[in-house]
Amino acid sequence: THVYVLMENPGFPIESCTLSTCSLLNAQVQYQPSLGGNAFYISVFSLAILCQVFFGSRYRTWGFLVGLFCGLVLEIVGYAARMQMHYNPFTKGPFVMSVLETLLSFDYVFV
């Protein structure tokens, strides 16, 4: 059985929660992020970085290469943070990192 600590003690620090002690309703997100899905996106964006470096160097589109490279790196960091949230969705650091990196990467990728 699960012991839902925050329901009984609202002063309990959320950073001390784990999946076995607190409900997902008290987490930063109300679901457990998928390891397989996030690993798939990391591999796709890693492959896109390799292709971008190859074609950007070959056709000498340096500005486009740098912008897209930065955006793809931020996407990878964001999805890596979501993989960290799979194990502990109660900590604020990976949540903030996943949201900020994923939002900021679109500025680089789609400009």
Describe this protein's structure.
Helix content is 65%, strand content 0%. The chain is built from four helices and no strands. Helix 2 runs antiparallel to helix 3 (62-87) and helix 3 packs antiparallel against helix 4 (92-109). The longest helix has 26 residues, at 62-87. The protein is elongated and about 60 Å long.
Q: Count all strands and give the number.
A: 0
| Number of H- or I-type helical stretches | 4
Shape: elongated
For the termini, the CA-CA separation is: 50 Å
Poorly predicted regions are 1-6
Question: Any idea what the radius of gyration is?
Answer: 18 Å
Helix percentage: 55-70%
The helix/strand class is mainly alpha
Instruction: Give the helices and strands as they follow along the chain.
Output: HHHH
Quote the average pLDDT. Answer: 84
Strand content: under 5%
State the major sheet: none
Q: Which key phrases capture this entry?
A:
111 residues, mainly alpha, 4 helices, elongated, disordered N terminus
Quick take:
The protein has 111 residues and is an all-alpha fold. It has helices spanning 5-8, 35-58, 62-87, 92-109.
SSE topology:
Elements: H1 5-8, H2 35-58, H3 62-87, H4 92-109
